[in-house]
């Protein structure tokens, strides 16, 4: 749907937004939209990277446990 919107379509949308919200509110709306998009991207990246970090963390814990077990066997 959004692939069909070109430059003329964006200009029409911006003019309509300017008429509806006025020139004083547009920067606030733009900032709010930008920060919302930034938070969404951050949360998405955290979810994607969090899964791999949890997997790496569990593998690290297993390796440390194996090292501790081998040390306790040789130290006894």
Automatic annotation (TrEMBL):
Transmembrane segments: 6-23
Keyword Transmembrane listed: yes
Topological relation to the membrane, as annotated: Single-pass membrane protein
Domain of life: Bacteria
Region feature Disordered, mapped onto this chain: 48-76
Compositionally biased intervals (Basic and acidic residues): 51-62
Keyword check for Membrane: yes
Keywords from the UniProt entry: Cell membrane, Membrane, Protein transport, Translocation, Transmembrane, Transmembrane helix, Transport
Compartment(s): Cell membrane
Biased composition (Polar residues): 66-76
Function: Part of the twin-arginine translocation (Tat) system that transports large folded proteins containing a characteristic twin-arginine motif in their signal peptide across membranes. TatA could form the protein-conducting channel of the Tat system.
Family the entry assigns: Belongs to the TatA/E family.
Subunit structure: Forms a complex with TatC.
Protein name: Sec-independent protein translocase protein TatA
Source species: Metabacillus bambusae
Gene (UniProt): tatA
